Amino acid sequence: xxxxxxxxxxxxxxxxxxxxxxxxxxxxxxxxxxxxxxxxxxxxxxxxxxxxxxxxxxxxxxxxxxxxxxxxxxxxxxxxxxxxxxxxxxxxxxxxxxxxxxxxxxxxxxxxxxxxxxxxxxxxxxxxxxxxxxxxxxxxxxxxxxxxxxxxxxxxxxxxxxxxxxxxxxxxxxxxxxxxxxxxxxxxxxxxxxxxxxxxxxxxxxxxxxxxxxxxxxxxxxxxxxxxxxxxxxxxxxxxxxxxxxxxxxxxxxxxxxxxxxxxxxxxxxxxxxxxxxxxxxxxxxxxxxxxxxxxxxxxxxxxxxxxxxxxxxxxxxxxxxxxxxxxxxxxxxxxxxxxxxxxxxxxxxxxxxxxxxxxxxxxxxxxxxxxxxxxxxxxxxxxxxxxxxxxxxxxxxxxxxxxxxxxxxxxxxxxxxxxxxxxxxxxxxxxxxxxxxxxxxxxxxxxxxxx
Length: 452
Description:
Layout lengths: L2 E5 L1 H7 L6 H9 L3 H6 L8 H10 L7 H30 L5 H13 L2 E4 L5 H9 L12 H4 L22 E4 L2 E7 L10 E2 L14 H7 L4 E4 L13 H16 L2 E5 L8 H12 L4 E5 L4 H9 L7 E4 L4 H14 L2 H4 L8 E7 L2 E11 L2 E6 L5 H4 L13 H7 L5 E5 L5 E11 L8 E7 L9
Parallel strand pairs: 1-2, 1-7, 2-3, 7-8, 8-9, 10-15, 12-13
Antiparallel strand pairs: 4-5, 4-6, 10-11, 11-12, 13-14, 14-15
Helix pairs in contact: 4-5, 6-7, 6-13, 10-11
């Protein structure tokens, strides 16, 4: 089943309540831009912040040219403050480690090469990939943020003689721009839009050095599309057109569209039209992952989606439970994934050559095959010969015998976290245990190695 995830502000809020929802963002701006609070003395509610910005962003027929120019100046001031505010919030969130459900979701997206569409400016999703040290097991590189967005917009040139190619992974289409992207205002050619890819990951993130950024990208401003209905000035460049076209194609080709923390704001006419076209292109299941789904369901019905083909995942931990659901679905495919495994090989659990553990035994517990593993290390250390001769290895056949179509394989780490096996790869070592042939069981996530 081809699934496309559509991520809204509720998704980032689920990662951390420090990431504001749309109206909350507007109310924070009221406290930081004096003219906003003067012109809008009451708090933003019911999604009104988007509608209010819409009037500022585009010339209005009932206003004079001078009034429209004043409105647009305020709009640009708000956009700049949005960027500063969200950078501050994101940096605070990144100082911690990502929630376990997010680690598992990103690892699952990587294993299944799923496309995700987001309207969020933050870089929390793409920065989770290097934190997990995800590999494609071919080049032995690690998935980096520039792999996740597939270099659209392109990254600022990376220095050095060896170009880091990273690794193949899932795709994230950022339709409203990104905190790490900059451009010359109203550049219709798209030639000035660039990303900065040097800001670290969870636990190692650093604040933007604005003076350095201005030297590297002189004369450029943040490329974020404010949450307003009329965003045409931002859509005339080829970068934006390519992203939106790719999103439309992904939605039309999908069998299942999951709206994860995305409410289909009535002011966002462009996205509503794209969704309506996708739903008209063929029968699809739409899953609404949101604590408050009623208005979203009503909008989907208006866009042409039969109510019987709308499934709900609700409650305070809706996104975490949806991650559990996706992980379970992929975990049940392990029997088929192992059919092509080398039967002479032995088992590793790993997300990359630098985050791996050897399987030491398997045990069936109802519908779960529990994998017992060594301490996490790298592939060379975990497959090395044991001088005492008591290093257990487990062949692929042992796991195949324990599995059936309804069972999943899981690993419980010493930290107590549990992950499901969602992918299979191959690895070879010229020295060490066995014949050097290893079948890699790829979990949805694997915690960092323990420090001595």
